[in-house]
């Protein structure tokens, strides 16, 4: 039968793409799991007949949808690795496909899901309610005008007037039918939506045709349409046979309303319900949909609701803490300022904290601030705040448990700091046994970003992504969300915690640490943050199970803790200085015998003249120097000679490898990835990298003093990715580059001093992507570029594109992509 055939073909397509491409492995495996759960229904006629007990048009439409889903899946391997936006858009289409499959078969699958949904229902219902806490938390007058319809406004609103005007402008002037107001829970999305519905101009345009529906996580399309019919259109005894029937009848009803304008407001829509929004989109003039959600949706324009400024934050806090004149007589002004500052402009925090301190004396205020300064969480005394923010995090447990764990790991980094996406990916790859190349790990960043649990920032629209490479992505997170991650990670006793997050001020080592003698901790992730006054006087710590160690410092000098040498399971080490100047890094000898260490990232540190202890790490696979002061630490590794030809250099290195002398190489011999970014005093790339026969990715970027690359670079026969962008003094590429037959991706963007390319560039038989925007000194291309038979994409500026157009007839399978020079764009935009 057609339905069974459609599902089987989709399963086969999914299985094929899982083998063929790693770019969407997580989503494809999730889709495979859904199809596996559906398959038994297809083999049991009784259960299948229940599924098919719905109007024939709906079943036929779903069969067509399965065919489109198969096409969507088979397109996975065709998505360009460097196009961030295209990957993000395709990932969301796969998520929608998964949701639609579950929706169609939900009658038969719901028995298996009932228990888990019942368990989570209370939490989600609380989350639905808490996002509207601005109107209810004080239990003051107001509330809903009736059980249904547009709710009344809360009695006190602050900081949303400007947002209302901008939201109204977008809704009325932008062509998109759907507009989403997006922000974390408790930021006032619901209040803003109510303000819009009560606005006189909006009411003058839409009249009585404003349909306001609150959408819980488990609300179905049929239920939403029933509420519209019964409580807004006043149609009694309204029953629908299926979601498709409900959708069709609503579309017919709206069409019959003629020229009247209609506004449908869907309040608090969860990420899993994006298909409902899609289903409610009808090609009817004058029909608009406003959605409030903690998530971002690709099918809608988005208005991101920001936090309160200092003045509005203080006003809201005053109203919550001192509702009556004279209430603050015994509370000094400095305490109020500190308390407001602690809430970081977060409306729900200002309301909840203010209400908790209402009527309290100065002692209680000071005690609360003291507890926070000593590490006690703001959530310990504000259950409303905890429940509201936690609901979004708990939603991940059921659908994406690894993403839930990834959110909790965000507490490993200092507050108010940008976190490199690649640093997070290194951490997650080792903790959760993800792909070693980072090809799809970024999907977890996208998932958390889409749910407003972090902000994903692309430094410029030219930020490239090949096989998950995302060096120019950064992550920021609101302090309250970071505090939530720390709070949720700290519920178990210290010895039993999966992740242990430690902050040390001055030399004030936590008491439990000092007392620890025999009992080891069982954490897999250990994060230690110290300030500028810490003297690196470490106590012993037994942590045999730690796999990821994150060390954050601000001091001018920093010694690695001696107990690292006992961490036999350590796989990833991240050392970052957040001070004004790079921290002098000492005691590298502690890491020399870590046989399982695979990833090491040093950021904003000053390397000692000799860092040979790093080179003794035989199993190290990725080494990153980010904004480091290199000095002469790498110069002692020089093996290049100005008088030696590239071929002779390659010959000598080959002999060294054959003879086994590679063990004495000044670089870890099994590196597959080397990253040098923003090291301002690096003038020459170390020639010793040419010994790294396993190297697949070499990235030397933003090193503005770099003027030469090793002559024997071509000995890196396994190199697949070479990035040297923004090295403004680099004058040329070595002639030996033609030996890199496995090179797929070459990026020389913004290398201003390169005026010509070596003729040997045409020998790169495996090159697929060549990125070279901003090479304004380049005068011509060698004719050998016509030999680049596998070249798919050239990404360049308009000026450079003319050089390629000259050879366009010889490169018929190559697309010349002109990148607009707009660094304010969120994603790279390819035109032409």
UniProtKB/TrEMBL annotation:
Any one Gene Ontology BP term: defense response
What range(s) does the RPW8 domain occupy? 1-143
Q: What GO molecular-function term can you cite, just one?
A: ADP binding
Q: What UniProt keywords are attached to this protein's entry?
A: Leucine-rich repeat, Plant defense, Repeat
Pfam name, any one: NB-ARC
InterPro entries per UniProt: Apaf_helical (IPR042197), LRR_dom_sf (IPR032675), NB-ARC (IPR002182), P-loop_NTPase (IPR027417), Powdery_mildew-R_dom (IPR008808), WH-like_DNA-bd_sf (IPR036388)
- Which family does the UniProt entry place this protein in? Belongs to the disease resistance NB-LRR family.
Name of this chain's protein? Powdery mildew resistance protein, RPW8
């Amino acid at each position: 039968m057609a339905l069974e055939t459609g599902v089987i073909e989709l399963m086969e397509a999914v299985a094929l793409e899982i083998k063929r491409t790693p770019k969407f492995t997580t989503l494809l495996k999730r889709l495979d799991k859904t199809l596996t759960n559906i398959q038994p229904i297809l083999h049991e006629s009784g259960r299948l007949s229940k599924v098919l007990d719905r109007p024939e048009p709906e079943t036929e439409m779903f069969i067509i949808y399965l065919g489109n889903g198969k096409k969507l899946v088979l397109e996975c391997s065709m998505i360009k690795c460097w196009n961030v936006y295209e990957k993000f858009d395709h990932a969301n289409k796969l998520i929608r496909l998964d949701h639609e499959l579950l929706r169609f078969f939900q009658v038969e699958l719901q028995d298996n899901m009932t228990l888990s949904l019942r368990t989570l229902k209370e939490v989600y219902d609380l989350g639905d309610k808490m996002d509207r806490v601005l109107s209810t938390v004080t239990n003051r007058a107001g509330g809903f005008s009736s059980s249904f319809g547009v709710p009344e406004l809360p009695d006190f609103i602050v900081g949303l007037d400007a947002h209302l005007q901008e939201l109204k402008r977008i809704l009325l002037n932008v062509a998109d039918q759907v507009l989403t107001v997006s922000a974390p829970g408790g930021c006032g999305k619901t209040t803003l939506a109510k303000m819009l519905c009560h606005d006189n101009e909006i009411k003058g345009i839409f009249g009585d045709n404003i349909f306001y529906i609150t959408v819980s996580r488990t609300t179905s399309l049929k239920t939403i349409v029933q509420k519209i019919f019964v409580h807004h259109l006043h149609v009694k005894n309204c029953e629908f046979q299926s979601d498709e029937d409900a959708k069709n009848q609503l579309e017919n009803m709206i069409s019959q309303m003629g020229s009247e304008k209609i506004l449908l407001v869907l309040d608090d829509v969860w990420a899993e319900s994006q298909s409902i929004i899609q289903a409610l989109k009808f090609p009817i003039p004058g029909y608009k949909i406003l959605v409030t959600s903690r998530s971002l949706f690709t099918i809608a324009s988005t208005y991101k609701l920001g936090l309160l400024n200092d003045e509005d934050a203080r006003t809201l806090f005053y109203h919550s803490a001192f509702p009556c004149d004279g209430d603050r007589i015994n509370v000094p002004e400095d305490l109020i300022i500190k308390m407001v500052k602690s809430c970081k402009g977060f409306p729900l925090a200002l309301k909840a904290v203010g209400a908790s301190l209402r009527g309290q004396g100065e002692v209680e205020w000071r005690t609360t601030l003291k507890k926070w300064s000593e590490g006690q969480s703001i959530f310990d005394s504000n259950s409303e705040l905890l429940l509201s923010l936690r609901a979004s995090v708990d939603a991940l447990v059921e659908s994406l448990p690894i993403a839930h764990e990834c959110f909790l790991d965000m507490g490993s980094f200092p507050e108010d700091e940008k976190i490199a996406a690649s640093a997070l990916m290194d951490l997650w790859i080792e903790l959760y046994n993800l792909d070693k190349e980072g090809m799809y790990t970024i999907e977890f960043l996208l998932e958390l970003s889409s749910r407003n649990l972090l902000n994903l920032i692309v430094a410029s629209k030219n930020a490239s992504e090949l096989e998950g490479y995302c060096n120019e992505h950064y992550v920021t997170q609101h302090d309250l969300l970071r505090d939530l991650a720390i709070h949720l990670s700290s519920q178990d006793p210290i010895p039993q915690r999966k992740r242990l997050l430690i902050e040390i001020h001055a030399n004030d080592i936590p008491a439990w640490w000092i007392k620890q003698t025999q009992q080891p901790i069982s954490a897999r992730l250990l994060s230690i943050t110290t300030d500028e006054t810490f003297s690196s006087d470490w106590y012993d710590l037994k942590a045999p199970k730690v796999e990821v160690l994150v060390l954050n410092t601000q001091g001018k000098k920093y010694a690695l803790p001696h107990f690292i040498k006992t961490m036999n399971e350590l796989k990833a080490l991240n050392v970052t200085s957040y001070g004004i100047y790079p921290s002098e890094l000492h005691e590298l000898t502690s890491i020399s015998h870590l046989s399982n260490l695979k990833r090491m990232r040093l950021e904003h540190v000053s390397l000692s003249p000799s860092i040979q202890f790093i080179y003794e790490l035989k199993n190290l696979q990725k080494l990153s120097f980010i904004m480091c002061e290199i000095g002469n630490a790498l110069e002692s590794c020089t093996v290049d000679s100005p008088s030696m030809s590239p071929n002779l250099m390659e010959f000598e290195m080959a002999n060294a490898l054959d003879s086994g002398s590679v063990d004495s190489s000044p670089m870890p011999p099994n590196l597959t990835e080397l990253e040098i970014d923003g090291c301002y005093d690096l003038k020459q790339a170390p020639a010793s990298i040419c010994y790294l026969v396993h190297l697949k990715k070499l990235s030397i970027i933003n090193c503005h003093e770099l003027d030469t690359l090793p002559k024997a670079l071509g000995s890196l026969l396994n190199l697949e990715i070479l990035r040297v962008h923004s090295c403004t003094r680099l004058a040329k590429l070595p002639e030996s580059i033609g030996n890199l037959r496995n090179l797929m991706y070459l990026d020389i963007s913004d290398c201003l001093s390169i005026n010509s390319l070596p003729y040997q560039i045409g020998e790169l038989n495996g090159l697929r992507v060549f990125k070279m925007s901003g090479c304004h000194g380049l005068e011509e291309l060698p004719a050998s570029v016509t030999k680049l038979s596998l070249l798919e994409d050239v990404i360049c500026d308009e000026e450079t594109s003319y050089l390629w157009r000259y050879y366009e007839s010889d490169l018929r399978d190559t697309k010349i992509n002109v990148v607009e020079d707009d660094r304010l764009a969120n994603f790279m935009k390819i035109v032409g």
